[in-house]
Write a structure and sequence with these properties.
- About 15% of the residues lie in helices and about 35% in strands.
- Strands 1, 2, 3, 4, 5, 6, 7, 8, 9, 10, 11 and 12 form a twelve-stranded antiparallel beta sheet that branches.
- Strand 11 and strand 12 form a beta hairpin.
Length: about 450
């Protein structure tokens, strides 16, 4: 009898186990929560919404464990708090915002332990830019509007979202070589179990991207589509698969010029051996470092170039350096305080500030006490950027007193970054940022 009862209970649990996207609603019919389950285990994105449709909270689970960014929002759509979690443990930088969108507090964690807190005074004059309302209903609608179109009541959804498809993309060699970017539009037949049965390209991109998109979609598991009664059904879903290298490749002619070539140079197009110093100017400092597979590119500026950069707002001044996995000191030439921030990439791929170093400089507000005390020099910060372009962690390598370090960290946290791209995929990056303290 007991065995029979146990068997019955197991059957009931298996029948009613949560699987797929589960939604709850407000009395007015608007979505309150949206949760993702795989075999009764939390897996994927979880969302909570305000009654006005704006996002209240978003978080991600991997096999039942919190992973990645947890974000809460004010009802206006502005960020309230950002917390970074690895396997359920706080690790890295957390940020708390005032109701007007200004940064209020920064907390640094290491393996769940609070290391440091930076508090900022409330600025009543701060006005949040339009793109800061990331939790607003309109932004959410615009983001999702052209992702998936289908022929059933509830569309099939990739487990992990469209990002799970993009992660599977292997960027074709020739498309990458010629800097081809864009979208592949395709239709996928997805059966009632969430398996992709077939695909057909509707809008081509070429150079192998169409085939790469189809392969990525076929390798992705979906939550199946549903009819009006909530029954899983076969569906035809139209998907837009994006191909992006994350940065444009620039053709550089080797001729006399006073321009400082500190932009990234693609290894697929250029061989560093072919870029030679211009006669009559100082060497560009391109060297080899023994034992390192990738070449080291350093740009040494002339005084004339530094003066020109103070006037120019071009995105430059990023020095990409590939280093060994083991710690090794790089020989750095002692020089005067640089005119602008300098960024050195300590990983095989580099993240860059949106708007260039000028945007980073704009966010750096030198404290009054530093100026009063006549403190000058540089603050050097090691910064970890995740694959989405968010600052995950910061560490002061070389600092200055009277609040200069905190001001430098806040400047980095306020700056938006373009994520690093490696083999056609977004990856994390480790940077060393030097901020000049001069006035």
């Amino acid at each position: 009898m007991n065995k029979l009862l146990l068997t019955y209970l197991l059957l009931v649990v298996s029948v009613f186990a949560q699987n797929g996207i589960i939604k709850s609603y407000y009395p007015n019919g608007k979505v309150h929560t949206q949760e993702s389950y795989v075999d009764d285990v939390k897996d994927g994105a979880f969302y909570t919404y305000y009654e006005n449709g704006n996002l209240a909270e978003e978080k991600n689970f991997s096999s039942g464990v919190l992973n990645g960014w947890i974000r809460t929002f004010y009802e206006s759509g502005l960020l309230r708090e950002e917390v970074y979690v690895e396997n359920g443990i706080r690790n890295g930088v957390d940020k708390l915002y005032y109701g007007n969108g200004a940064l209020a507090q920064v907390r640094s964690y290491k393996n769940g332990k609070l290391i440091k807190i930076i508090k900022l005074d409330y600025d009543s004059t701060y006005v949040a830019p339009a793109d800061a309302f990331v939790g607003s209903n309109q932004k959410i609608i615009n983001k999702k509007s052209d992702e998936i179109i289908c022929n059933v009541f509830e569309c099939p959804v990739p487990i992990g979202g469209m990002a799970s498809i993009e992660r599977k993309i292997v960027y074709p060699k020739h498309a990458k070589l010629y800097g081809l970017e864009g979208d592949v539009l395709l239709i996928a037949k997805i059966d009632s179990s969430g398996k992709v049965v077939s695909t057909k390209v509707l809008k081509k991109l070429g150079l192998g991207c169409d085939e790469a998109a189809e392969k990525a979609v076929k390798e992705t598991r979906f939550f199946p589509g549903k009819d009006k009664n909530g029954k899983t059904v076969e569906a035809l879903a139209t998907l837009k698969v994006n191909f992006s290298l994350g940065r444009k490749k620039h053709l550089v002619s080797a001729k006399k010029t006073t321009r400082d070539f500190s932009e990234f140079v693609s290894n697929e197009i250029y061989d560093n051996k072919k870029i030679s110093p211009v006669s009559g100017e100082k060497s560009s400092g391109i060297k080899k470092e023994k034992g390192i597979l990738n070449k080291v590119t350093e740009v040494k500026k002339t005084a004339r170039q530094e003066k020109a950069e103070e006037i120019s707002s071009q995105e430059n001044e990023v020095v990409q350096t590939f280093v060994k996995s083991k710690k090794k000191k790089l020989n750095v030439r002692k020089s005067s305080i640089p005119a602008q921030p300098r960024i050195t990439c300590l990983s095989s791929a580099c993240a860059t500030p949106v708007g260039g170093v000028a945007a980073l400089q704009k966010q750096f507000k030198i404290p009054k006490r530093v100026i009063e005390k006549g403190i000058k020099g540089v603050v050097v910060i090691q910064v970890s950027i995740d694959k989405y372009g968010y600052v995950k962690d910061t560490k002061i390598i070389k600092g200055l007193p009277y609040g200069a370090n905190d001001a430098a960290e806040v400047a980095v946290l306020y700056t938006a970054f373009k994520p690093a791209i490696e083999n056609g995929e977004r990856v994390g990056a480790l940077l060393e940022i030097t901020l000049p303290v001069k006035y």
